Amino acid sequence: MTRTDLKTATFIAYKTITNGHKSTIALIVFILSLSFFNLMFVSGFLNGFSDGITESMIDNSTAHIIVMPQEEPTKKNFILEQARVRAEIQTIPGVEASTRHYQIGGSFAYDVEKNGKYNYVSAPIIGVNQAEEKKVLFVQKNMVSGEFPDNLRDDEIVMSANLTGGFGTSQTTDLGGAIVGSQVQVVYSNGIMRTYTIRGVFKITMGSVSNTAFISASEAESVLSTYDNASEILVRVDLTQNTLDGYADRMAKMFPTLRIEKYTARLSSVGILVDAFNIIAIIVSVISIIVAAITIFVMIYVNAVSKRRQIGILKAIGIKESIIEVSYIFQSIFYAILGIIGGSIIIFLIVIPFLAVKQIPMPFGSARLVYTSFGIFINIISLIIAGVLAGFIPAKIVANEDILKSIWG
Amino acid sequence: MIKVKNLVKTYPGHVPTLALKGVTLDIAEGEFVALMGRSGSGKSTLLHQLGLLDMPTSGSIIINKTDVLSLSEAKRTKFRLQNLGYVFQEYALIAEFTALENVSFPAMAFGDSNSKDRAAHLLDLVGLSDRVNHYPKEMSGGEQQRVAIARSLINNPKVLFADEPTANLDTVSTEVILKLFRKLNKDLKQTILVVTHEPEDKKYVDRVIWLKDGIITHP
Fold this sequence. Notes:
By secondary structure, chain A is an alpha+beta fold. Chain A contains 13 helices and twelve strands.
């Protein structure tokens, strides 16, 4: 294809578009805008779902990196001298904050009717220093009743709504409706028994924290008869300064006896969900591209068939088939670009602002559309490639026809 | 200029139709020839073969010393663009192009950077200098046919083929077109082969080739 051929093909495409039926062009662009919107919306929504789940896990359950006690050669229950360990971790550039957890198993009992009939539920109980904890995890942002104060007293507890019951939860076992101010009895796995007053109730539906209760770190040390240790240390990092692997490797070198785990390893069943959504996003995107390609194919085919006579005339006066085919490809690309612009306007100027105003509640927060530059680029390129193929094939079919048959039918 | 030997064209089908039964003819350079005959005699079929719009079943066609039937599809297309002009009965203009664009387009496809000036000159030659920016739907049938003639001349073809160019025109327009062909033949020495079924058109041409049932009766 020479420069003259390209110029000729461009001229045919330009004249066909500018002198074509405006309503037909508007319909083609409208349908392609919807196709691109569909492509962008579904992938963006599923990406938002995956991102929301992951973000919820990081913010409420795991932070970015989890430091755990030594397992080899001897398994230990605690990280010793946690203050020193955390101080060293803080020296790593990009580490934003860390918090330590004591984890204890416990069985809760609550007499909701005050008639001696107790409701029981077992759950992990985490001892935290909330003043430090809130720099790493954001459970306090999910309170549905009461509060999660920095100075949680040793006789107070903050519980998940899944454990207390009520607040719209639907667990098969819970305490039947314990509220802020209620007193619950706890029997720890080491046999120690305590009574706590509920100071706050939070509602988180994703991750292990959804079935957890929090007590103060000093109370946990009292129960466990230990001091300055930790069951785990959670670390929040700045991922713009280093990669997750980079931080984890640095910590692993710093503490060769401790077990370092990234949040991705804790996603487990949620990770499967995220993977599933990512796969669904790809499948839906491919289907959207195919639908868009078929739409362009039909539009261009109908357009080309209605211009069979013109194509025959072009061939009769000596215009190469390839020039005619390329002219239709140019038209397809033009329609695809207008569709991309139209779809982008719907997404970025209508749907995203609408979702910001009218939030749709999801298990991890509000529904949102999440895009990466690469993802948008792939969607745009996909639609343009679909346009090229879907424009070329019908043009090839019609341009291949016998000249006289094209002109006289 | 044109040497046709034993040209046969059979249209396949349940009952194959033998449209040309071995046509042999010569047309000299600068000659203005009319191809006449009754409806169904094979005039248009012969013109389609000569204009390379269709492929004969057998025989040979030499145009300007080129055995055109031995050319590949791509080379035939190029040959058509460079050497042949074709005027259809129903004008066959591109509806989206103006008169000037219709005329200049084959030259543009040929890579002629001066195509618009030459197209304007040709439109002036056919008496349409005031219609250059009009679209086909804004012109009469006679005007459209003159645009088609101007288009057929844009690449200085060796031969101009015209397939019943006046069939859809009124008497006045018909006379204008045929006089135009005569003028082009005289002034530009343009070789022209025109298909017509009007006996009175004979007065404009140098020679008439009569065709009957796919065979030349008066070469």
